[in-house]
Amino acid sequence: MHVGRPKRARRSAAWAASLAAMTLAGGVVIGTPATADLRDDQRKVKARISALHDDLEHTSAQLARAMKELQETRSKLPAARNALAAARQAQQDAQARNEQAKADLAVARADEQKAREQLAATQAALEETRSQVAGFAAQLYEEQGTGTLAVALDAADPQQLADRMALNEVLGEIQSGALQDLATTSASLVATQDFLAATRAKVAIAQAATEAALAAAAASAAAAAAAQAQLEDLEARQANATGALEREKASEKQRYDDLTTQSDQIAARLAEIARQEEAARKAEEERKRREALAAQNNGSGGGPKPKPSPSANPPASGGFLSAPVRTGWVSSEFGWRVHPILGYARLHAGRDYAAGCGTPVYAAAPGTVVSAGWGGGYGNQVIVAHGQVSGGSLATTYNHLQSMAVGGGSVARGQLVGYVGTTGLSTGCHLHFEARLNGVPKDPRTWL
Fold it and tell me: How far apart are CA 428 and CA 425, in angstroms?
């Protein structure tokens, strides 16, 4: 195990920190604009999950889906909260307009009532004035032809004449005043009728405004209720998604522990093979040493010395292994990283080749198939031992295979051993290729 974390681990840690920084306790995604487009948010979440795909190697699809669902739900929450706030504000504004409209209607109706009372009073005064004028008209008709001369002729004495002339003058003034009052009251009646008509129009306008404001308030209330329901639904979905994610985290931790156990079992098995190979090598060297010593003791030392057998160890300068696939690309290198969901550091013990399911996988070097079958979290797995290389026993493993083409025996370099798949703990079609020296995972690039 490396003491320090290499660049890959630091970059993975940065990704994990970035992912953590994007969420708050309430599930709000920082940086999402108030008017966030939900489809754009969803695209961003998908892109974020896709960018983290390399770090999700050896992660179950269930955990990845739970994380994706939680992130997508969180991305919708800010817009839903903004929509609810806007709907509530619109509801308050509509209710305020409704209250103002009702107040305006009350004032208009009060003005209408006042105008009606004024009209009734004016009509009563007009009727009274008309009655007075009618009385004077009747009196004038009865006294038609009776002027100042008649008054003088009918007077018995000068005092009676003066009294009748003064009375006649007073009656004339009263009659003239009654006629003037009639004209004034008639004009006031017309004005009051016009005021009443205008007031009624104002009442109609206020009534229409009240009805419109009431309808707007009802619509805003319905919109606020819908926004509230949507937000509550999203919050419930977030709670469910959070619970599902926590459950998947616990399961994933167990699966990761199982995967670690499986890796340790592979290491122990390959270490045993390494011990056996080393013991065989030492036994062969001892046998050759004894044969050489016996030959010397038998006096055959004068003959030509046997040439040393070529070393069984290929050069350690690189190039011993060939690429296990002929198409695709390297999507993830060997090294330490931080799991973006679980948060703990782990060793990515091999090299990932991104290729479609069904892509042929070839032996990276000649060797012996020591295992071909189900490898737990590694899925369908083939393990090939290549003998002594670089001072140790080198083996390669081919993991997550869709199917296997070998079951045992020897294989040559470039021989088909299986097909790319996504079995075991895998989030997509790829080959997880490992190189192990004495059972310990090493960077395959050392020998490629």
Answer: 9
**What is 382-397 written as a DSSP string?**
EEEEEEEETTEEEEEE
Which H/E stretch holds residue 441? strand 440-442
* Euclidean distance between CA atoms 415 and 154, whole angstroms: 158
| pLDDT tens-digit map of 358-388 | 999 999 999 999 999 999 889 999 999 999 9
Rounded to two decimals, what is the model's pTM?
0.49
Q: How far is CA 220 from CA 83, 223, 225, 308, 437, in A?
A: 12, 5, 8, 95, 71
Give dist(CA 331, CA 108) in Å, integer.
77
Report the half-sphere exposure of 1 (CA within 13 A, side-chain side): 6
User: Residues 32-90: pLDDT tens digits?
Assistant: 444 445 455 555 555 554 544 445 555 666 666 777 777 777 777 787 788 778 888 88
Sign of the Cα pseudo-torsion (351, 442, 1, 263, in order): positive
Q: At residue 326, what are phi and psi to the nearest 5 degrees?
A: -110, -5
What number of other Cβ atoms are within 10 A of residue 190's Cβ?
10
How remote is the C-alpha of 5 from its chain's centroid? 33
Q: Output the CA–CA distances (angstroms, integers) from residue 200 to 21, 85, 103, 123, in the order listed.
A: 64, 39, 16, 19
Calpha distance 323→359 (Å, rounded): 13
